[in-house]
Amino acid sequence: EHIEGMAGHGLRTIGIAFSDAEDVEAVRQLEDAPPADMPMTFIAVLGIRDPPREEVPEAVRKCQQAGITVRMITGDNILTAKSISREIGILTDGCAIEGPDFRRMTPEGQKEVLRTMQVMARCSPQDKLTLVRRLKEMGEVVAVTGDGTNDAPALKEADVGLSMGITGTAVAQEASDIIIMDDNFSSIVKSVLWGRSVYDNIRRFLQFQLTVNVTALITCLAGAVTGFGTPLKPVQLLWVNLIMDTLGALALATELPTADMLLRKPYGRNDFLISGQMWRNILIQSAWQLFFCLGILYGSQAIGFYDCIPKGLYSGTGACMKLRPDGVGHDIDGNYRDAMIYNAFVWAQLF
């Protein structure tokens, strides 16, 4: 009763007992644990408390807010595990089970209980490995933390293994993908935030690049197959890729994370890198850019676009002439149509 009371308050219990020995040599002959039949006198039960860090409850709340299910897997007594998990916000409306009970279940039964399980007590390393495998079979993306050598199989099996940099063993660190240098759970929140930021930045860059390339490809293809030449020349496209796309990539790829990234659910295991919303944006952006580029290509003469060269500049006569439709660029007739298309294409990337 006393032990359960202590465990219910989050205390790890340890019993103290002694036995009389005839001489010192008899004590030396004992191994780490005395024989089971050795008479001993029980003295007391001590309750040891290892309080969680102050920042852990807030870190757990942020993970849950970000759509991450946090589970506690521990070797402690189930009463101790329940008390600590409630204190830090892990055990809310779910259930807590013990490792031996989980071990006796069928694979389908394990998957069913995992839907509501938030705490597993009296857990062995094999139970932890089985839990990771069952979650992956359910299509979940699994991250596991651990510091001991026995945690290595689960760290290796998980999609993301996180070991401790201070208390973690070399075996655990070798098996993991990420090493938490300060052994602080709140650092996991930072890694999630930066991971989402990098992923979103890659998506932004891909959307920008695909929009540029789709517009350039259709413009050149349309001009070539309809007899209007290639409005965008190789040197111009090279300039776009080396100068404009490089600066755009730097701007998009180095954008810092924001707190609202933790307010949405994580991407699924089978989600496409280019989402439907991205394809929508690419098509809309490409369409309005093509409207200007193809409009100048086909409508420059019909609409009445003129090229006016001041007198004396490039041997100009000071007269204004309509832009020719043959796409040969600037020549004695003063054709600047392709230059207008190129400028429209470049300025469209800025808006």
TrEMBL record:
This is P-type Ca(2+) transporter. The keyword NADP does not apply. Residues 230-351 form the Cation-transporting P-type ATPase C-terminal domain. It is found in: Endomembrane system. The keyword Manganese does not apply. SUPFAM superfamilies: Calcium ATPase, transmembrane domain M, HAD-like. InterPro entries: ATPase_P-typ_cation-transptr_C, ATPase_P-typ_cyto_dom_N, ATPase_P-typ_TM_dom_sf, HAD-like_sf, HAD_sf, P_typ_ATPase. Gene3D superfamilies: Calcium-transporting ATPase, cytoplasmic domain N (3.40.1110.10), Calcium-transporting ATPase, transmembrane domain (1.20.1110.10), HAD superfamily/HAD-like (3.40.50.1000). It comes from the Eukaryota. Its EC number is 7.2.2.10. It holds the Pfam family Cation_ATPase_C. Keywords: ATP-binding, Calcium, Calcium transport, Ion transport, Magnesium, Membrane, Metal-binding, Nucleotide-binding, Translocase, Transmembrane, Transmembrane helix, Transport. One of its GO terms (cellular component) is endomembrane system. One of its GO terms (molecular function) is P-type calcium transporter activity. It is a multi-pass membrane protein.
